[in-house]
Fold:
Amino acid sequence: MDATLAIDTKMQFFKYLENSILDIDGGNIRAKLWFCGIEPGMAENYSENYLKDLQKKETVYTVDDFRNEQFHVPYYTENISKFQFDKKVKQVITGWMGSEYNGSYEQDAPVFKLNLFPLPASDVSSWNETNKIMTGCVLKREYYGRCIGHRFPLFRELVIRYDPTVIVCIGKGFISEFKFAFWGDNKEDVPIESRQLRQDDLYPQIHIHRKQGFPTIIETPFFGWRKFQLNLESDAILLGEYIGKELIEYPDKSKSQTIIN
Structure:
């Protein structure tokens, strides 16, 4: 790869992250319940033109009360149940609502969904030539570090402006990054409450992080199908019920449709 091209690509890519939400989900940025993953799952036909292709496909609405400008917020209208990860998110919302959630990450959704890091990946260790070309970063940890410097300050500003009450942070091992993104720092030790979703089983377990003046962070296992992950839909519903009972009541019961027996 040409060195000059790499530098220009890197500057362009990370400069974009300072002022725009590069993501594929989004939803209602004014919602009080947010979900955040580590990074999107691998996209089909993923290439070095991903940024331009995403901008063409992306459905966005604008908010005028952030940075005194028209800020674009992505939203997603397709059925999220076709994705294993998002199907679990839907079940969490179902448990929170107390009835079946039939929506998506829409502009008027009761939730907002984003990822710490913007580029799709098959797993947290994957890093290929396309990623290197797009970002100019030879190593994935360099990409992570530059996202922390360029993308996380935007996240913190959005949290201050739109004031979510609870952020469900999905994926163990990244709690320091989640705290830095949404609290602005992670230096202060805060009490951690650990809970078992099923009282008769040690797993899955969630950790609740509270800090005065900041959104409550719920650290969960990855929403997958392997052992020690949050792999049962019933566990996702239990997580939603916990959020509704202990942290934040669902805001609009009139949207309830199919009551769960």
Observations:
- Strands lie at 26-27, 33-37, 59-66, 69-75, 111-115, 166-170, 192-196, 205-209, 216-220.
- Confidence is low (pLDDT under 50) at residues 1-7, 256-261.
